[in-house]
Amino acid sequence: MHSGKSYHIGEFIIWTRRNIFLLLLIGAVPVVLFDVFNIYWIAIPWTVVALLGTATAFIVGFKNTQAYNRTWEARQIWGAIVNSSRSWGAMSKNMVTDDAKSKELIYRHFAWLTALRYQMRDSRIWETASKSYNKEYRKYYRIPEKETTLELELAKYLDQEEIDALLKNKNRATQLLAKQSKLLRELLDSGQLDTFQYIEMQKVLNEFFDHQGKSERIKNFPYPRQFATINTFFIRLFCFLLPFGMLFEFSKMNDYVEGPMKGHMVWLVLPFSVLISWVFTSLEQVGESAENPFEGSANDVPISQISRTIEIDLREMLGETDLPEPLTPMNNIVL
Fold first, then answer.
1. Neighbour-count burial of 211, counting CB atoms closer than 10 A to its CB (0-12 exposed, 13-18 middle, 19+ buried)
2. 20 to 30 A from 62, CA-CA: which of 157, 220, 222, 313?
């Protein structure tokens, strides 16, 4: 997540520079053929390009809206995890009379948050974090889940025997919630929880299952590939045809100008076609960066920071003073 006021224009240009170089080449070829080699038949009617551009604008806008909705839903899910976690901490501290069991419930919750965020950072074939323009940007921020192993992180909250058993499972977060439910049942059977307290705590545990399932839905189901594919096809086709459609439009300006540019106004096709095409390709790239809000890109939902905030809050509920430091942005980026 970018926590600053905005990205600088220089950052954005560097991030999209590969598109700019390619668009310069695409724009230069028809201009040279038209003005230098006098091949006039390559020009196409502007109406054709305008209609294609309208259709492209619609589908680009649709994709960006849906990509934003995916990111916003992910942020709402993890915001709900914050609220439910605080409820869980208060219940574990105040309803469970055994301090050791109370701490166990809270620390295993930290383990659940850890296991879940590591699962969310796993790679998927459709994700874009490995693309060159995203990969090179990683030097400007940290991905905590890529710096240490899950086992080392879990060692802060669980004993080694439980960790060894947990790591044998595929979905570690689900198993941790199941373990929490089992412990609640044991506390009910031993009389340390009454029926009402058990039901209320089990409700919060069910909320965690629900939040986890919603996160997994976004993680494991991409923005539909048919829409992503046609969006890319339309943009590439439009950017390719745009300079051909602008040739006659700019060549007409030769009738109204004097000086060294007279007879060569068609060269203005190059900067203007690049500018217009860059707008479309940049919108596609921005939308692409919001499709997968857990992949480890600079625009991700900051699940590591959220988990650390929850841990600090719940440890303070336990009366602990040796607290972990909050995660702070690096170059305005925090995950």
1. buried
2. 220
Q: What is the pLDDT of residues 2-17, one digit of tens each?
A: 888 888 888 888 889 9
Bridge partners of 333, per DSSP, are 2, 330
Backbone angles phi, psi at 40, to 5 degrees: -85, -20
Whether residue 235 contacts residue 60, with contact meaning beta carbons closer than 8 Å, is answered with yes
- On whether the CB atoms of residues 313 and 126 are closer than 8 A, the answer is no
The single residue listed with the structure tokens 């909705």 is 69
- What is the distance in angstroms between the CA of the first residue and the CA of the last residue of the chain? 6
Q: Residue 280: CB partners within 8 Å, gap ≥ 6? A: 56, 57, 60, 235, 238, 239
What are the distances in angstroms from CA 328 to CA 1, 109, 113, 192, 284? Answer: 11, 23, 19, 40, 29
Q: How far apart are CA 246 and CA 277, in angstroms?
A: 12
Tens of pLDDT, residues 52-99: 999 999 999 999 999 999 999 999 999 999 999 999 999 999 999 899
Place of tokens 């409700």: 203
Distances from the Cα of 151 to the Cα of 24, 155, 175, 179, angstroms: 49, 6, 15, 18
- Is residue 109 within 8 A of residue 89, CB to CB? The reply is yes
Summarised one tens digit per residue, pLDDT across range 270-282 is 999 999 999 999 9
Tell me the whole-structure pTM to 2 decimals. Answer: 0.91
- In the three-class reduction of DSSP (H, G, I as helix; E, B as strand; rest coil), residue 330 is classed as strand
